[in-house]
């Protein structure tokens, strides 16, 4: 790939979704949906979001954490996490505050995103000190950050050659249990690029879990409205045809080299949460548009694909 990259208006619109997501997360955190001591470093004051948006983000974060903890329970901390299209996600720092900090954590996103994230990390001691081990070195150069156990790398996920190079630079190894995270990222890739990326990941990591959170059921009227709204913002869903019912996502991932896969719409995921969690969240804000929330929930899905016997039984209720 050439060193000089010309980003399109569509690329910039996709990059802007990171800001939107970070603002939504900060709003929900401020309202008490979950705790995140680091999100405020990445976005300042935000306007209050609609209750259905806050509740939807809670379900997303809670569900991802649920499977992250299942993964770590099975393999311990001697593993690696690869966050595809990481944006301003704070998972690395949140894990560092627990006993579940992993051996190696690699984050990939557009260079403009990683450059901003590098800048924020560099100027905030609370973020930087979590990356530095005693006498450790942090190298920040050309939008990339390298340290002992954390790598933040600018990368175009549509270019498999570049992905391979960056994963190698981040110390990724096929020997370690691997957690792959893809939140609202694959849907923005052309189908051929997403196919190549997923096949590469499945073949490179024989003991892995892939967590995918993105739109689903886009073939109905509500889904068509979602697609039109995103298109109006300049965000074409290049992978829209793969965002159908969750069962189709399962078959797709099995066909790409994963041993097992399961997928649920977020309404199913929400109902799987412990009752006390749902009661607490429902008490935070009045929700007038309950039907709208249900429609949103049935148009997003969480998919879990695995390779290796260690992770074969990962499930909503595990």
Would you mind describing this structure in some detail?
With 318 residues, the protein is of the alpha/beta class. The protein has a single domain (9-311), classed as Rossmann fold (3-Layer(aba) Sandwich). Helices cover 45% and strands 16% of the residues. Strand 6, helix 7 (191-204) and strand 7 form a beta-alpha-beta unit. Helix 1 crosses helix 2 and helix 4 (111-123) crosses helix 5. The longest helix has 25 residues, at 51-75. The chain starts with 8 loop residues before the first helix and ends in an 11-residue tail after the last strand.
Helices, strands, pairings?
Elements (H helix, E strand, L loop, with lengths): L8 H22 L20 H25 L4 E5 L6 H6 L7 E6 L1 H13 L1 H7 L7 E3 L2 E4 L2 E5 L5 H10 L8 E6 L7 H14 L3 E8 L5 H12 L13 H10 L4 E6 H7 L2 H8 L7 H8 L2 E8 L11
Parallel strand pairs: 1-2, 1-6, 2-5, 6-7
Antiparallel strand pairs: 3-4, 4-5, 7-9, 8-9
Helix pairs in contact: 1-2, 2-12, 4-5
């Amino acid at each position: 790939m050439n060193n000089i990259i010309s980003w399109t208006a569509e690329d910039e619109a996709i990059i802007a979704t990171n800001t939107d997501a970070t603002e939504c997360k900060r709003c929900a955190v401020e309202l008490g949906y979950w705790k995140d001591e680091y999100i405020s470093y990445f976005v300042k004051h935000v306007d209050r979001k609609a209750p259905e948006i806050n509740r939807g983000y809670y379900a997303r974060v809670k569900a991802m954490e649920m499977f992250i903890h299942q993964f770590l329970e099975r393999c311990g901390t001697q593993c690696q996490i690869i966050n595809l299209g990481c944006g301003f996600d704070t998972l690395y720092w949140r894990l560092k505050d627990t006993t579940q900090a992993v051996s190696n954590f690699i984050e990939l996103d557009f260079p403009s995103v990683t450059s901003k994230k590098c800048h924020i990390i560099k100027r905030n001691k609370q973020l930087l000190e979590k990356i530095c081990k005693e006498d450790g070195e942090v190298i920040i150069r050309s939008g990339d950050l390298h340290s002992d156990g954390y790598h933040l790398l600018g990368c175009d996920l549509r270019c498999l050659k570049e992905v391979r190079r960056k994963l190698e630079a981040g110390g990724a190894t096929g020997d370690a249990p691997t957690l792959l995270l893809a939140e609202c990222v694959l849907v923005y890739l052309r189908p051929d690029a997403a196919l190549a990326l997923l096949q590469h990941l499945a073949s490179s990591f024989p003991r892995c879990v892939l967590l995918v959170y993105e739109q689903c059921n886009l073939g109905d009227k509500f889904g068509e409205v979602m697609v039109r709204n995103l298109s109006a913002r300049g965000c074409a869903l290049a992978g829209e045809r793969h965002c159908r019912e969750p069962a189709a996502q399962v078959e797709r991932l099995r066909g790409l080299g994963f041993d097992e896969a399961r997928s649920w719409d977020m309404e199913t995921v929400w109902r799987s949460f412990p009752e006390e969690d749902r009661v607490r969240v429902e008490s935070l804000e009045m929700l007038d548009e309950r039907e709208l929330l249900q429609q949103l929930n049935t148009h997003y899905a969480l998919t879990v694909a695995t390779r290796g016997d260690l992770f074969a039984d990962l499930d909503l209720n595990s």
